[in-house]
Amino acid sequence: MPATQRIDALAGLIGRTVAVRGWVMTTRSSGKIAFVVLRDGTGYLQAVLSKKEVPAAAWGTVGALTQETSVEVTGTVRADSRAPGGGGVELQVTDLRILGASADFPITPKEHGTAFLFEHRHLWLRSRRQVAIARVRHEVIQAIRDFFYERGFVLVDTPILTGAIGEHAGTLFATDYFDLGKAYLAQTGQLYVEAAAAALGKVYCFGPTFRAEKSKTRRHLTEFWMVEPEVAWNDCNDNMTLQEEFVAYVVARCLERRKAELAELQRDTAPLARCVPPFPRISYTDVVETLKGLGATMEWGRDLGGDEETLLAKQYDRPVMVFNYPKAVKAFYMKENPADPRTVLNNDMLAPEGYGEIIGGSQREDDYDRLLARIKAEGLPLEAYGWYLDLRKYGTFVHSGFGLGVERTVAWICGIPHIREAIAFPRTLYKLWP
Ligand code: NSS
Question: Which atom of ligand 1 is nearest to the CA of 213?
């Protein structure tokens, strides 16, 4: 038996006899010669069967090779730059065996509606586009980990079951927690990485976060992955510098290592190639004026909505950072701006091409009394924040951090219209299965 190989290894095995296992995508036969296109997750491969050269049993199965039949093919690897599959090779088959039949695969090459595809998400994942998106997501996540590892950050895993509200009281998933009352699914790991930053200096957490958002926009999931660095002694400006270096790094990695996938997705990579620092930085107050100048109805004090973000981001050729938002529309933990106490030392990063906010970050309130006042003013239960206030009691420190949403970032890099295709099994207001 020849050794079993993955399709992506075949380009280095020209002339060799190998076995490949995979799933049938399409078949075409002239009666004497048959072409079977296979996929195995690592690539696509055309297998060529000649009636004269394969055993009769193998030739006899050709008609049964329906879409998604799993098979094992044996044959010789041949260089062929034009072969469908794109790996520069095809397989001259010497034998073929069906491993698992597949009758009436529901997703055919014809067009299907989005609702139908999401009901069949477990099977839709096999399609070329979805495989390409999954591989870009994988690269984004690996790049995130490499970026922080290379810069000496320590990964700290924060809890998913939490006792304190991290962001907004309005979007909590709650569950009963034994005799201790309610536990909330984490909206953020931030409060915990703040504690860890005082222990380790530069840290990040990276995990799923949960928001009971009833919004039906193309930018919202109820479960999404967020990476949250937190750095002792960084102020708001250092925080923005870290963000632009970070986003530029992740984008550059995808351009370098996921060319084939971005091509599969027909992504115009020119806008991505422009994502090099420095990114423009503009204050919220200036943004309000800019938006008014562009004809939007926007008054000082209101948070930016999706439409305003899109309109603003269109004015720039790379991501833009908006800083110093009004205190009233932002979370309790953000540090008040000493130069204008109506605002806080925060920023959002807006992606270009209409993708909107991908990062929210801030310098944290490090003054015990001010933080206490904010917690009280927001009506948050004081007893849940005793430990968080302690960080301001025992050697308080300037510190900043941010959160980047993985699915929004993947959707933008892939150029796909909706965030729900950026994760294998999305969770939204309407989606709990599969
Ligand atoms: O709410 S954020 O703006 N900020 C935080 O959670 C901070 N605690 C982060 C920090 O400073 N450590 O969310 C951050 C990002 C936001 O910019 C989006 O990219 C993403 O998280 N995000 C979402 N993605 C998908 N769906 C939903 N619902 C969602 N909410 C936020």
Answer: 28
70 φ/ψ angles, rounded to the nearest 5 degrees? -95, 140
What is the CA(135)–ligand 1 centre distance, in A?
A: 23
Give this prediction's pTM: 0.97
| Rounded distance from Cα 202 to ligand 1 centre (Å) | 20
| Cα gap 278→239, rounded to integer Å | 13
Atom nearest to 193 CA in ligand 1: 12
Q: Determine the Cα–Cα distance for residues 247 and 244; give it in Å rounded to an integer.
A: 5
Q: Does residue 85 line the site of ligand 1, with CB under 6 A?
A: no
H helices of 378-425, in order, are 386-390, 406-414
Cis peptide before 278 (omega within 30 of 0): yes
Of 243, 234, 239, 185, the residue nearest 211 (C-alpha)? 185
pLDDT tens profile 33-75: 999 999 999 999 999 999 999 999 999 999 999 999 999 999 9
DSSP state of 345: S
Nearest atom (ligand 1) to Cα of 221: 26
Which of 310, 244, 331, 236 has its CA nearest to residue 280?
Answer: 244
Q: Report the distance separating Cα 118 and Cα 370, nearest Å.
A: 47
Distance 275 CA to ligand 1 centre (A): 21
Structure tokens at 275: 């994502």
| Protein residue closest via CA to atom 6 of ligand 1 | 188
